[in-house]
Structures are given as C-alpha cells and as structure tokens.
Amino acid sequence: MSLDGVVCQAMAEHKATVIWLHGLGDSGDGFAPIVPALKLPAELGIKFIFPHAPIQPVTINGGMKMRSWYDIVSFDLDKRADEQGVRESAAKVEQLIENEIASGIPANKIILAGFSQGGVIALHLAPRFKAALAGVMALSTYMCAPDKFSAEAIQTSLSVLMVHGSLDEVVPMQAGKQAYDVLQSNGLNVHWSDYPMAHEVCGEEVALIRQWLIERLS
To answer: What is the pLDDT of residues 186-209, one digit of tens each?
Structure first.
C-alpha cells in the first residue's frame, strides 16, 4: 500500500524534492506549514512531500490507534523502536523516493527529513538506500538498531543535519547524541545543533534548516 500525504509543489521548475516524515500521532499536515516559513528561493525548484504514517495501535498509548511509523512498546531507548515496524515503514518511504527518481529527480537532489519517529525512519533508510541522497535531516530523534548500522549502511559519505532540544523530555538529547556518535564513527558528515527547547521546532532551527537546504540543493 502506497503512502498518501500532503504535497507542496515547487514554485518554479521542479528540480529537487524534500520528503519530510512527521512524528507519532501527527500527520503530514502537521509540518506542511513549514514550507512558507522556510522562505526558500523559488529557483531551487523544491517540491515537498509530507506523507501520512499508517494508522496502527501504539502499545505505550494503551493500544490506541493513531498515525505511527512503528509501534512503541517501551520508553527505554534500546527497546523504543520496533525494528520490524521501522523496516516496513522504511520500505514504504523508499517507494516515495523511487517515484521521485522515476519522475526525473536524481537521488542527489532528494532530501529525506524526519521529526522524532519520522527521524528514526529517515536515519534508518537513507544510509541503506541504493543511491546517495542529497542529505538527511534528523530532528529531535534517535536511531533504531544502532548495533546493525555498520553492517548495513552503504552510503557512508552522506550529509546529515541533526537538531535536538536540550529540554526534550520525550526523546532525551542523549538519545540523539547516541545516534550522532554512531553516524560519526561510521564516517558520515554529521552536523549537530541543539537549542534550549522541548520536543519541538524553534525559530533558530528553522533558519538553520533553511540554510542547510539551500547548501544541499543549490
């Protein structure tokens, strides 16, 4: 089953695509308003895709059904991400990337971004994808199966932007730092920034994202 979502078409000729994955219980609509806030140059021709995660029961929320990229059975970091669910969602997002490539957008003009749960999928998929993407944006997130990264990652020169809130009580910053350390130790080009914020996106972060996207997609 293919993912549906919100699409913000490029303001000029379509030259690049950003696929942006939301967090637990949110939807593609949640991040779509960031497109006008980024004020990106129209000539970059960036199309944004904000897919909706599948609706499924989430164990830590009493089995309530909500949009979720994978089940969360425990708040413990080493058990938080359901690996099978991560891999299943990564396969669905991979199809979105393949669709963009088939439409004529090269892999090196595609950014995979994600917040929280969405960032877990982005960090899992991009290094394992068959072609090198323009970059990965991992916001307020962590890594699934860090012990398998070295064996499975094939794109080890990937550029990664990681941003985290030092006051985040949902995904503690230490969880993001662990992912950062794994990426760095495997040779990826990782930029880390943190801000005194909770599990959210702040204005300074939006400015940083804008600059990074321009650098990666110009």
So the answer is: 999 999 999 999 999 999 999 999
